Every structure is written in C-alpha cells, then in structure tokens.
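PROTOCOL LOG
Step 1. Enter all chains and additional molecules of the complex.
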Amino acid sequence: MSAAASVPLGTPAPRARLLPSLAAVYRAQLSRARVARIPLLFVATFQSVGIMVLMRGVVDGGSEARAVVAGSSVLVVAFVALNLLAQYFGQLRAGGGLDHYATLPVPPASVVLGAAAAYASFTLPGTLVTAVIGCLLFGLPMGGLWILAAVVPLAGAALAGLGAALGLLAPRQELATLAGQLGMSAALLLGVLPPERMPGVIVWARDLLPSTYGVEAFARTFSPHPDWAAVCLDLGVCAAVGVLSLSAATWAYRRAAVR
Amino acid sequence: MSTGTAPARPQGGSGTAAADGVVCAVRDLVKTYPAVRGRRGAPALPETRATDGISLDVRRGEVFGLLGPNGAGKSTLVRQLTGLLRPDSGSVTLLGHDIVRRPELASRLLAYLGQESTALDELTVSLAAETTARLRGLDVRAARAARDAVLEELGLTPIAGHPLKKLSGGQRRLACFAAALVGERPVLVLDEPTTGMDPVARRAVWAAVDRRRAEHGATVVLVTHNVIEAETVLDRVAVIDQGRVIACDTPAALKARVSDEVRLELVWRTAPPLDVPAVAALAGAAAESGRRWVLRLSPDEARAAVGAVTGGPAFAALDDFTLATPSLEDVYLALGGRTAKGLVKS
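Step 2. Run joint prediction.
Step 3. Record the structure below.
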C-alpha cells in the first residue's frame, strides 16, 4: 500500500495487463456462477435430457440419434453461454454495473473474454452428463466423447460472444433477455431436430447458427470412421465465429461503458 | 451520526483556489440529456440540463463535497469527472490530464465508488476486494495483501467470506467502499458512500478517508445529500441546485452567511392552535410539513416565539420544539435552492 505513496502526483497508475485481469475476471465470474447459477445448470441439463427422452420415441437410431444427442449436448452450452450471458450483460448494463469495470484500468477484452470463458467452462459438466446419458439412451459409442473438450470451448466462444454482444447492444434489459431466449430457442429447434426432415429454408437458417457447427462436429465423431477433416472444418467455423463474435462483444462493451 | 475526525485546517475563500495544488479543475461543464418520448407506462421527459455550466476547483488533500437534493445533477457531474460520461462542452482536468479528451486516463488516476453494486453483488467480500485490486493492476500477491489490509481496516474480516448479496445494505456499501480503496489512488470519488450505514461503519469510512489523506495526501470528492455529514467531514462544499453551483465555500463560511438567523422547529400534537394570536402570527412564516413547522427567525424573534409557544394554550398543543443554529440546509434554502426535500439530516 505504501508503494503508491511514492508515485508523484499526476502520473497515471499503470494499466492492468490483459491476461492477469482476464484471469481475475474469470475467477470472479466462475465463483459468481458457482453461487448463483448451479440451479440453472441443473435446469439446462434436465431440459436436454428430457428432450432426448422425448425424441427416443420419434427417431430410430442411426444418424438421427447422433444428431439428437449432439444437439441436446450443445444446447446446454447455448442455454448458459448465450442465454444466461446475454441476460447477465443486459442486467449489468441496465443496473450501472458496467461503471465498476469502466472506472478500472482494465482492457475491455479481458472483461468480455473473462466472463465468456467462465460461462462457457461452467457448461462443461452439464454437457458431459447430457452426452453420457444420451449415449446410454440411444446406444451410441462413448469413445469419441473426448471431442467435447474441443466442442465446448469453441462452440462456447461463439455462443458466449454472441450472448455478450446481444446483452451489451440491446437498448433495454428486457430486450437482452428476449434476444438470449430467442437465440436459445433457435439453438434448440434447429440444433436438436435432425436436419434430414427439415425444409430447405430452415436448413439455411440452421447453417447460419454457430451452434450448428458444434453439433455437426460432435455428431460426426459417433460414426465408426469419423471424417476428421469435416470435424476440423466445423470446429474451425466455430472458432472463426467465436473470434468475430467476441470482437463484436468487446466493441459493444467499449461502446456501452462510455456514453 | 457521522463523526467529524477531519482536522480543522485554515481555508481560503473560494476565490483563491487557482494557485495552490489544484487536483481537479472543472470549467463550464454542460451536459444535456435529450428529451425522452413517452412510451406505454413511461411518461415523456423534456430535455434536461443535468449540468448547466459548472466550474469548480478541488485542491490537493481536501475533502470536497457536492451537496444537493436528488436530481440536482451531482451524480451526472461525478460521472463526467470519472470519464464515464462525455460532457457536451466544457473541460475536466484531473492532475493535469484532460479527462474529456482522454476519459480512459481517469481510471488510472482515481478510484470511484458509484451508487450501484451490481458488478460485485454475487462475489464474496474478500473476492470483490481482491478482484478489484487485480483489475487496478496489482499482481496476485500485492492484491491479496491490499485486500487483507483494507478488510481489516474497515472491520470486514469477520464477514469476508459472505457474498455481498447476503449482507445488509450498510455492510454491502462498506464492502464496495473497501473495493474502492484497494490499490491506492491519489483521488477518491465517492458517490454517497455512507448510505444505509450504521454509526460504526460510518466512523470506519471517515477514519479510512482521513488516514489516506494524512499518509498519501489523497484528495476526496464526496457526493452527499446528508447535511450533517456535509458539515462534519467536508473541508469545502459546492452547493448544487438544478445543474448549477449556487455556492462554494467552507461549511462554516456558508453558515456564516445566514448566521443572523436561527431555526425554530415546532411539532404540534394535532392541529396547530391557530386561535392563539401568537401562533397565528407565526403561521405565515412557517414551512409546514404535516404537524411540523420550520421557521427561520432572527434570534430575538425566535426568543419571543419560544416564549409564546411554551406557555398557555399553545404549549398544551405543542408536542416538541427545537431551537438550533443554522445548518447547511438553511444555507441551501437561503441561497434559493428550490426545495430542501431530498436533503437528509441523520
């Protein structure tokens, strides 16, 4: 504490560096999530498991079953990273909470990335539980589940960036919540239902949704001889969308913080 | 009650500010909020000039207050000082840096305690302080040391593991104040820091402020609508009304402007006994709020009035009375403040 006393009057204190402040925000957000979001993670997981139980009567194994299991697992990511993060940033902006960060010498990217990373990693257990239950329900092999270690962070980055941008750009808190809910509904309808039975326009809409590529990548790994090039391509799309949406969210944060 | 541990120091009048150690200079600051169209459930608002040509100087090491009722423009002013809000015109110079042109520098020069705690609500007291310290650029070890020192100083160590959400309003405010203090800054901007606090917590706040002033020469800009607090802790105060500074001086000098008056407060049991001629004579000069009358009178008039209401039928109808020297609230009214509602005394 006495170190600051020797700083001559007028010299600005140093900025907080990107990675340490990102780590600090990540840790704080994860602890927030632990306190406040565990019930919601249960909701997300039960919702996905429930959908799979329902779909078991409709689909008859094969590629449809893979699509259902992969879609339900990624839905947990969409629920937390897109929906809850949009709500959080909407609430933070409406409640004046951004002032706290805006009056600290912290890079905008570390606030957005720290929060997004915390929400995305918070979804991992729920996604894993959903995937395991899905494999048991539909008799799918569990050997490929390690791919979730790539799918969750990449789909998480894309969806969390989208959620954060929506939350920060929405002019009112209710609209942020609405946008988050709609995004999650889209991920549910377009991600969980097998694409084979969809009309052409809907398939187009499905291709525009970033979570689709996470679902596709995951679904491909259930086949006995996965097409790894296609998996990598799908994950690459997730990563690219993640970079774009997180940049957009950082820009939105900067815009929201100083008015 | 807040405690005034602030050492009395000689203060010049507001005119001599320019020369010695001005930390924060504000010139002709104007901010107008655009008119809001009415929506369903939300009435239309006209265009509002929240700060209307404000100029002031805050000197090194002083506790400078912004006093005014709710909606006077105090928070808009501090949001412009802290770089959170861009003024339409005017300048803010903080420690020699132009904050209007480079608002991002404000966060490296000052610590700000806003009115909201949304960002910290779900963190524990300890993590809120530590995270804030890290975001002020301290490394892990320094952040933890600063956290421990501040929590100990403010008596928050026993509740360090509780989330802010679970604390009472005053304790939560104190935890946010702790977060504002970690990672020392030469300037502290505090927006109503003691709202909802008990006397012990208030004492802790003012002791911590004084310590930073004595040890580091810290400068404090304090927003308050509490006149008692303003009188006891402030070195100088700018009285703000409708976006303008209507007076700026030491509390004592401001009070001297109305020193020829005293304040008489009468509380009646039921209706005031207007059939008593002396009471009826006072009625015209009284500001009424419910059963309470507030009168500003010369000392002689006040003595006569007290004599009249403490005898005979008037005394039977009287519940309570107080006679006091003028407070900053009286100053505010004497200077033409539009309403003293929103100023509190506690």
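Step 4. Note key features.
The radius of gyration of chain B is 23 Å.
The longest strand of chain B covers residues 22-33.
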